[in-house]
């Protein structure tokens, strides 16, 4: 059953990398601009597209089409990620349901906002384009009114993205994700399009090839081709039994639904990524060159990890060996291991990455690596800032974890903290005396502030005991008494 109760907006930033560069350097707005990665133009501004420049075109071909093409290197993704995060944050100010789809696309579920706005003003006006027939028969569920309100909200958000960040975007407004995504690219750039449910079938058929249906990957499309299904229409007309012979039941049903534009999946709120990684295409044949590439990747990666704020627990490397049968492709192999390395200890990271590398590549033979990647996965959260003794101890050890110098070893941070304090206390002229009855080793491990607190507890206790030497009063719950109890 197709449910029309939601209003979903899909946002896609126009010529994303090119716009980020144009925001940084407005002079680039008036020239045909291409973003270069290695030997290809990964994207270009719309001025360059007028010359026929396409995504992933070779530089030589692009230059032939447009000799005035200005090229900017786009291999460092830092600014693009930053901008992507800013757009994401801005969208979150409209709805808690924002799902990131790559760096320049987001779904936003604005159903609640639409409801609120319709309560304030019943009337909603169409903003932007409509796919199909504006006067298509009205659905009884009220979806048309909701989607029109959605088009007003989409315009409002796009205006805000432009005012705050200088970026133009396209938007698709529909009652589910797949339709919002498809309809959004009907009118580009800097435009928005709404789809009413009655026209969903027409939109899906307009794609023609099943390969153009989002979420039907190449693997599924290849299997469909083997059973002679290549068009959306053929997928509509085939029966589930036929699909069930090559896919499991759920997948078969899902493919059929998608081809009709039926998609009840929710907008999943995007949390922090499960892994943070980078990889580069390369041609590496020597150990030294591999190390240099790891260094390069690590430098960029550490900036991202520090910004993310979590502590990586696992390092993973990716290697693609040259395969003469697939000179442009081939399988990637990965190896990973647990780590406990301060983020400043780059040498230790490289050493660990190289150890993993030699698990994939035979150290005694020659090699040719065409892709090298480095990533961190499995993160631990940084402790909260709450001011408890426990978080104080944790916080200090984590602070060290982030800030310690390259001489740090690969020890547990808490142990390192212990050593640090011991040095601190033993060498300090202001070292605080360990009160009688408290374990000296434990005491020495504690931060000066805590030692100070325990000493004060001890002296206060002592005064109290001296005053009421015969008193049977129970001991108050102080740190000093706690440590005394631990010892006995
Ligand atoms: P897209 O959304 O495909 O393209 P775009 O935003 O540049 O252009 P538009 O939406 O106006 O059609 O990709 C987003 C960014 O991803 C793009 O700016 C550059 C980058 N990219 C790559 O790095 N490699 C690729 O192969 C492609 C297609 C894009
Ligand atoms: Mg885009």
From TrEMBL:
Alphabetized InterPro entries for the sequence: DNA/RNA_pol_sf, DNA_pol_Y-fam_lit_finger_sf, DNA_pol_Y-fam_little_finger, Rev_trsase/Diguanyl_cyclase, UmuC
Protein name: UmuC domain-containing protein
Organism of origin: Hypothenemus hampei
UmuC domain sequence ranges: 8-217
One of the GO biological process terms: DNA biosynthetic process
